[in-house]
């Protein structure tokens, strides 16, 4: 099938590459000429495991094309995906200006029937808005051309985006047109074998499903972080509690890892956007407000431990930081806990020596050449001469470091672990002071 994808971000590029991989004829349209030219040379704008070879191969074999020419894009596919960004505006609502611009562009150029598919995370009611913009534009053109608008949210995780897209757990489709369902069945057929993963519903329910899923996951994390704070005060160990409750199949083991807060491009933005949606219709979303507040406070947890240990004034102190990305296997630092940590440490006068396996360029881009941030080439180099080690991201190669050399490199053997990577008892036996999240037992051991 011929498919057009507007927006070469995370969602658009991964979806386009995966659709091309199974044989569809896909063109990606973006206004960023640089991005398009780079892609043609094989330079991929994001780090995502497995994505580069997938894009390269499909591009070389002609199933995946890139262009800035919107008309070419509109002419190409019956299916027109909208996968542009929906950044938060000043009050945290999702800003739809990119979505409506694409909708207008499609309506300006279309000559035949199009199925416009919202892939971006968009508030309930966006499909109506897309439809209104397109109807209006077609009217000014005096063109009487039919079109459909479908909500088909993505659920991919950064770091596992290609796999998530190749083997989706569900394909949510919101539409009021049975013919469109047939077309989408054909489009997604290669991903929908063995058992039917397509969940059909009305458009508004599909739009809300995406927010509800992300907000549910964020709620699980904030809930665990709250219990971890209690565990700490009560002298219990959250890691034991996690296993204890995860074994209940109704609760499950996933997304109940306590830590120094969730970040990324989705959870913080989507929780906030759903809060704004609720408020606009006169409903107070108490749980969502608490989820957000708990997370904001959780990001201040590591700085609080550090100040508890070293005092409020951190002038002259240097901290080794392992992990800048908001989670492993990505270079993305959007809303990362590491940023709150570094900014709080800098305010208190401290220096940071940071290492991340993938996010060094991103840190450089965000913070430039600050005098109080040194980006180091290895995790070992980050430790040299630092007063203590702080961990913000659970990259695999942080899990079993050579503890003796960690101890030798640091001025004081102190670890502030925002991801509970180590066994408190063993690490304390090795001579470290160990601050972790919600591990009351560990706090007791070194007090
Ligand atoms: C998320 C959703 O998982 C995905 O379905 C949706 O489409 C987009 O948003 P993503 O933002 O890529 O994906 O990351 P995810 O793996 O969900 O992690 C989000 C944040 O939560 C990270 O900062 C992570 O460290 C944190 N987290 C996750 C926890 O603190 N504890 C957990 O148990 C799980």
From TrEMBL:
Organism: Izhakiella capsodis
Pfam families: UDPG_MGDP_dh, UDPG_MGDP_dh_C, UDPG_MGDP_dh_N
Family of this protein: Belongs to the UDP-glucose/GDP-mannose dehydrogenase family.
Signal peptide: none
Chain segments annotated as coiled-coil in the UniProt record: none
Protein name: UDP-glucose 6-dehydrogenase
Catalysis performed (reactions): UDP-alpha-D-glucose + 2 NAD(+) + H2O = UDP-alpha-D-glucuronate + 2 NADH + 3 H(+)
UniProt keywords, alphabetically: NAD, Oxidoreductase
Domain UDP-glucose/GDP-mannose dehydrogenase C-terminal: 320-424
Active site, UniProt feature: 266
Source domain of life: Bacteria
Residues annotated to bind NAD(+): 30, 35, 86, 121, 158, 269, 334
NCBIfam families, per the entry: NDP-sugDHase (TIGR03026)
Record pathway: Nucleotide-sugar biosynthesis; UDP-alpha-D-glucuronate biosynthesis; UDP-alpha-D-glucuronate from UDP-alpha-D-glucose: step 1/1
UniProt GO molecular function: NAD binding; UDP-glucose 6-dehydrogenase activity
Gene Ontology terms describing biological process: polysaccharide biosynthetic process; UDP-glucuronate biosynthetic process
EC number(s) stated in the UniProt entry for this protein: 1.1.1.22
Binding site for substrate: 155-158, 210, 255-259, 263, 327
Classification via InterPro entries: 6-PGluconate_DH-like_C_sf (IPR008927), NAD(P)-bd_dom_sf (IPR036291), UDP-Glc/GDP-Man (IPR017476), UDP-Glc/GDP-Man_DH_C (IPR014027), UDP-Glc/GDP-Man_DH_C_sf (IPR036220), UDP-Glc/GDP-Man_DH_dimer (IPR014026), UDP-Glc/GDP-Man_DH_N (IPR001732), UDPglc_DH_bac (IPR028357)
């Amino acid at each position: 099938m011929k498919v057009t994808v507007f927006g070469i971000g995370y969602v658009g590029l991964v979806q386009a590459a995966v659709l091309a991989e199974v044989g569809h004829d896909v063109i990606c349209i973006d206004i960023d000429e640089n991005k398009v030219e780079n892609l043609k040379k094989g330079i991929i704008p994001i780090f995502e495991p497995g994505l580069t070879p997938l894009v390269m191969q499909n591009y070389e074999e002609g199933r995946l094309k890139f262009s800035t020419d919107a008309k070419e894009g509109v002419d190409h596919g019956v299916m027109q995906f909208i996968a542009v960004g929906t950044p938060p505006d000043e009050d945290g609502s999702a800003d739809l200006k990119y979505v409506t611009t694409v909708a207008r562009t499609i309506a300006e150029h279309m000559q035949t029937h199009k199925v416009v598919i919202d892939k971006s995370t968009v508030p309930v009611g966006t499909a109506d808005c897309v439809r209104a913009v397109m109807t209006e534009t077609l009217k000014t053109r005096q063109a009487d051309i039919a079109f459909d608008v479908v909500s088909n949210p993505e659920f991919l995780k950064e770091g596992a985006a290609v796999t998530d897209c190749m083997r989706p757990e569900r394909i949510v489709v919101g539409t009021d047109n049975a013919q469109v369902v047939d077309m989408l069945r054909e489009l997604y057929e290669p991903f929908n074998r063995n058992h039917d993963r397509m969940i059909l519903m009305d458009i508004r329910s599909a739009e809300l499903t995406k927010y509800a899923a992300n907000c549910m996951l964020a709620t699980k994390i904030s809930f665990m972080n709250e219990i971890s704070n209690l565990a700490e005060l009560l002298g219990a160990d959250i890691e034991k509690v996690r296993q204890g409750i995860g074994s209940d199949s109704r609760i499950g083991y996933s997304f109940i890892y306590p830590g120094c807060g969730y970040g990324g491009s989705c959870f913080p933005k989507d929780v906030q956007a759903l809060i704004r949606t609720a408020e606009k219709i006169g409903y107070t979303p108490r749980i969502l407000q608490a989820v957000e507040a708990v997370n904001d406070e959780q990001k201040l947890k590591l700085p609080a431990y550090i100040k508890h240990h070293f005092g409020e004034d951190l002038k002259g102190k240097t901290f080794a930081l392992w992990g800048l990305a908001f989670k492993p296997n990505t270079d993305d630092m959007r809303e990362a806990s590491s940023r709150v940590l570094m900014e709080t440490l800098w305010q208190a006068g401290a220096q940071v020596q940071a290492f991340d396996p993938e996010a060094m360029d991103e840190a450089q881009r965000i913070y430039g050449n600050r005098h109080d941030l040194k980006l180091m080439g290895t995790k070992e180099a980050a430790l040299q001469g630092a007063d203590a080690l702080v961990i913000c991201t659970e990259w695999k190669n942080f899990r079993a470091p050579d503890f003796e050399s960690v101890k030798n490199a640091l001025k004081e053997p102190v670890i502030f672990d925002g991801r509970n990577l180590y066994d408190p008892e063993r690490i304390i036996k090795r001579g470290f002071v160990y601050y972790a999240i919600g591990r009351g037992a560990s706090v007791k051991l070194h007090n």
